[in-house]
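Reply to thread "Modeling small-molecule complexes from scratch"

Following up on the discussion above, here's a worked example others can learn from. I took a protein sequence and the SMILES for zinc ion and predicted the complex. Inputs first:
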Amino acid sequence: MDPVILQAENTLYQLSIYALMQGSNFFTSTLSIDNSNSPEGKSDEHPILLPSTITCVEFDVYLWFGVEYNNCPTQENLIDAILISRQWSIHNPYGYALDHFRRQFQESQIHPAVVLGVARQFGIPELIQPAVHALAKPQIPFSSWSTDTSILHHVTVIDIGVIGRMKEKLLHTHFALCSVPPVVHDAACRDKNHVVCLASWKDFWMSTMVPRLSNMDGKLDNLLWWIWTDCITNAHTPGMTNECMQWTINQVIAAPGWRTEMRIPEGALLALMVPACIMLDPMLERIPGPDLVS
Ligand SMILES: [Zn+2]
């Protein structure tokens, strides 16, 4: 089909009629009228004038999400649309933009730091938790994004500071657990056995636990709670008395460090949470204009 020329404010748009009519009752009724003899919409000199209440930014938002809905909008399109639809309290484009933004984040097309910045800027608390938890994952090192200007553009100094501290604490927690915990000997374990017990325990810790504690690849079996569980069920300490092993393991698993991998992101989340920014109710937006009928 031929393109059609439209005008919003002082800007001309050349668009496909078919695309414009997709999902819009307004354009379907405006453009489906057979006016093949009318010059309207066929040249820059005779554009179809959009109602004066439709601004360019609003029309742009409509185009991104009405016309290009299936074309997978870019991250920047989506952020602009969230900004504009929030600013103008336009509900439908906001819903579209947020759905796409959430989906692209879930599909790892949008970096969690960008999601965090946008969610905090526009008051979307539901996205803050998944963004912080994604950033807490060991496989997303702080250094991989904290100097990337395309990401920094969307976050504040506070966002960076809180996430940076969170990552540092998480790293520290893993490495603090690497030092060999002291052996708790059973009363029956005599002097000579102490040495054997200690050597066996040290060997187990250094060869089995330390490689996993210092591995930050983010795989499930290198997460603290998994290592903690394995420590109880799979401790292999030949030469160590059963009693000594039990006493020692009981002490090790009671250490508070194991639970910090969950607590540290919760602390960051508290520091970064913002209240939801409320959109104007559609009814409130219809501020009555001056009564022109006199
Ligand atoms: Zn012992």
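What I'd highlight from this example: Residues 178-254 form one domain. DSSP finds 14 helices and three strands in the chain. Questions welcome below.
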